[in-house]
Amino acid sequence: MTNGEPDSRTERTPESVWDYPRPPVALLDDRHVVVEFAGTVIADSRRAVRVLETSHPPVFYIPADDVALNRLLADAHRSWCEWKGEAAYWNLKAGDQVSARAAWNYPDPVDAYAKLAGHFAFYPTRVDRCSVDGETVSPQAGDFYGGWITSEIQGPFKGEPGTAGW
Predict the structure, then answer these.
(1) How far is Cα 21 from Cα 8, in angstroms, rounded to an integer?
(2) Coil, helix or strand for 76?
(3) Which of 61, 77, 90, 163 would you call most buried, defined as having the most Cβ atoms within 10 angstroms of its Cβ?
(4) Domain 16-151 classified CATH 3.40.50.920?
C-alpha cells in the first residue's frame, strides 16, 4: 500500500456477470471510485454502492456528498427501470465542455433499492475517465446499461452488438 491506495498488484477474485443475481443487488463498496471530466474530478468516493445484475457489468452509484453537484445540470430525459423505478438524467459541465446525459440517478427509488437515493451513476463513455482503486474502467459496449468493466469482471456482457434479444 502507498498513500492509503491498495497495491495495484493485488488481484481481486474474478467475477462472472452471469453469476450476478436477477433482480439486481445493491452492495456498499469501499473501493476508491473516481470520475474525471475536462480536467476536473467530478466524483471521488470510498462510499459507493455497486449494483450487480445478471449479464451486466457493475454500475457504481456515488453519494451526492462525494460528487461536484455544481457540475451537474438537470436534463428533461427520464427512463424507467423495472427494478429501481424512474431515473433522472444529468448533463455534465466543466469549463466550456458539456457532456449530455453523462449521469443519472433515482431520486425516489423503489423500497428495495432505497440505498440508491442521493447517489449518482456516470457513463464511462461520456466522461474522460472512471477508475476503481486506480484502475481505469472500460465502458460497456452499447452504452445502454452504463456498466464499468474492470480486470476482474468477466462477460460476455448484455448490451454489446447482437445481444438485444438476450
Answers:
(1) 28
(2) strand
(3) 61
(4) no
**Residues lower than pLDDT 50 in the chain:** 1-9
Q: What is the pTM of this model?
A: 0.91
The SS3 call for residue 156 is coil
Q: What percent of the chain has pLDDT over 70?
A: 92
Backbone angles phi, psi at 113, to 5 degrees: -120, 30
DSSP assignment string, 80-122: EETTTEEEEEEEEEETTEEEEEEEEE-SS--GGGGGGTTEEEE
Strand ranges (DSSP E) for the chain? 15-16, 25-29, 33-37, 40-45, 48-53, 56-63, 72-81, 85-94, 97-105, 119-122, 129-132, 135-136, 138-139, 148-149, 153-154
